[in-house]
Amino acid sequence: MIRSPLFLRLFSAILISLGLFSAAAYVFSVPFIEEKAYEIERDASRTILDNVFELVSRIRGGLEEQRSTTVESYKTRLRDVLELAVGYIEHVHARADRGEITAEEARREAMEGLHAFRYGNGDYVWAIGYDSVILSHPSPDYQGRKSDDLRDNLGRHILPTIVATAKREGEGFQTYPWWRPNGDERAPKLSFFKDLPKRGIIVGTGAYLADVDAEVERRKAEAIEDLRQALRKLRIARTGYLYIFDSANRMIIHPNSNIEGTAFGDRLNSATGRPIAEDLKAAAARGEPLTYLWDKPDDPGNYAYEKISWVRHFEGFDWYIASSVYVDELRKSSVVLGNRILAIGMALMAAGSLLGYIAVRRLVWPLRRLADTAAQVRAGDLGAQSGIRRGDEIGLLASAFDGMVRQLRDTVATLDSRVRDRTAALAEAETRQRVILDAIPASIAGLDRDGRLTFANLRWAELVGRDKAEVIGRDLAAVVGRRAMAVLRPHLDRCLSGEVVTFEYAFPRDGRDIVTKTTLIPHRGEGGAEDGAVTGLFVLTLDITDEKQTERQLVEAQRLKAVGQLSGGLAHDFNNLLSIIIGNLAAAREHYATVKGLDAYLEPAQRAGRRGADITARLLAFSRQQPLKPEPIELCGLLRDMAVLLRRSFPSSIAIGVPEEGRECWTIADQTQLENALVNLAINARDAMPGGGRLDIAVGIRRVEDTLSFDEPVRPDDYLEIRVSDTGTGFTPEALARAVEPFFTTKALGSGLGLSMVYGFVKQSRGYLRIDSRPGEGTAVTLLLPRAEPVARLLDAEAATVEPLGGGWSGQLALVAEDNDDVRQVMRQQLVDLGFSVVEAASGDEAAELVEQIDGLSLLVSDIVMPGLSGVELARRARLLRPDMRVVLVSGFTVEYGDIPADAVILSKPWDKRDLVAAIGHAAQPAPA
Fold this sequence. Notes:
Number of strands: 28
Largest sheet: 6 strands, antiparallel
Low-confidence stretches: 30-44, 329-339, 341-345, 352-365, 621-625, 793-806
Radius of gyration: 48 Å
Helix content: 40-55%
Shape: flat
Number of helices: 23
CATH topology of the largest domain: Heat Shock Protein 90
Mean pLDDT: 75
CATH architecture of the largest domain: 2-Layer Sandwich
Number of domains: 6
């Protein structure tokens, strides 16, 4: 039956059909793309870096030990192999000893038999005679070869050296260069050989040391992989990590596997402009951490985040081991599915119909039934059967055909079910992808080479102010306009040429400028290969308006801080000068009061000195260096009291609104400076309303949970909000930008220090300030100060009795510590006028010695800032030696010098004699319990 031509033809057709089906099913595939994500956590630790460094050192030591162990293992194996070979040689020669074969036959059989001794990585056994002729070698090129041209790297003969060593010591090891099998280069080889004097030959075997090195390299690779796995699991703080790179700036180990093996030497440190890798190496050489600015995964390209790295150089591998920590991700996923199943069923049906048609033409009438049945099947009736029941080839053919139809019906049903399932899955995946794209906080779109939009998510459509369905298929220029297209065209051309382009673009919308950061990514055909043609591009746009605003505010705050530092330094120097001027003018007026006409000159000079002191106080307020005494303040009551005074001094055309009675709002600040700040704001409002208007001072509690836009970002907390608003002329944009600069004023007779003082006081009180103003619409100044819990009201009991001017101090001994000679002279004279005997010291160290040496000191007056020992430390030492001594500390501005003694009194520069008397009187009071 197998040889029947009819059977063979039909059976071959069935096999072909089944083969086509199997091949089609085999090549069907569905690709998937999965996302990757990693996080970076911050705050690295030097201890962890040292531990990793020690671990690498141990790995290095382990590899050296492993190499020694491996070499010893190879030597042991060489001994074992050679013992087998020697045993074989002795076995063959034993036959000659028994007379079974001749000695020459035994020698030839033994040498030929050694060719079969192959093991390891192509290693073999060789034999040489005492004349250094190779007797046995697996390579015909060396068989019978003499040693004349076989030399080592130093030109010494290899084989004679082996012969001499073997005859002298019986056996031994030797390393020499030798050709690898089927190789053109020589490699170091370690051989073990043994003298067989009874047979007159030397037998040896060897292994290439490169195999040993390869084993060590394999162990090294395993150790590096173990280290890589350990470092990938290691986190320092929240996002910090460890990484390793070599001296060629190639990343060896990094938590991000995409970076491993790549060179990052072209990446620059934005702070120095030098390659970041070189800065890391320099830091390792110095043994100091490297601080630099870097971007974050959720803010790529914005190199504004501070990062710290500790780096150590491991010379054994020439590695640099570094820790990296951030001081303050977009997740993308995509799934692509395909379906190519429907054609399989069509191909099977066409093949079955064609083969059936050919069979009908080649067979006799009994096959017509099969042809009719095949026609029904071709028409789609997969339930049709021929009904032929015969025992010959036609019957077998009919039976096979009916079975094929049934199988085809089941296959089509299965394929239809799969197609329905895959179609539903594709629809669900497309819907899910559309929802994800619309939910991503970024604007995403796609363009073809002609500039037509192929897709866009909801945020991109909202960005251009269009409906999402409206923009798909339209030209980009028609959507964004010609003006925007003129800006975008050069970037689009660069991207279509194959370059990834990132740029910023600003445009007006709803009355404000929107700043965006856009990245154009080329889309390539032919599977996306680098050399594939660019068929379109993807657009990724982020709204960075808030980030730009924050950046501008930060720059402005830094500028004002620099101006404040300069102003504070100048004010401190002027305070010393004014102390001398005011003190000497007061002394002159007191001592020469009888000189006729002198007072007319001294009075204006004293007023000018006090005016200068007021200016320096305002400069110190702006520079945040004025001495403050923060305390809980009930602000609403304070404002109501202030309103009474303001209504009396302001024109009746100005209405004043303050918080109503019965309401309390508490904050922590210096009450005097807060009153001065509010009065300054009220006076500015009055001057801005020459024709009258309304001044409102509103107070409320404000809880900040998200970042607010003030002079700098507001940290989340509870604050007391003070809003001073007027209906005056307002600021121009130019004037508003410089409103808090010292000496800037819009008034003809203004000093330009009012708002500067307010700004400095607010910042020194850990608060925030914002000015909202438009020309002709008035101004609103908002202050945020730390909120305080209500405290019990105390009676105004600075009722501790202050000693009267010059009262009871005659004959007492005072110590004056001041590094400025003129200031010290003024202080000395005023104390002498008050009845004190005065001892002077030009430094804190000198004053400390005088405190130890002189008995009877009752008063210490010391400048805070002096060379050597500071005034605060001097006061602390004096208290330890003389607990009853009064202490008055003199300062031109607020600085951090540790804890000031609780009963020490601060006297601000410049001062007059009344200030000094009050300070001494307060210093006499007991310290609060």
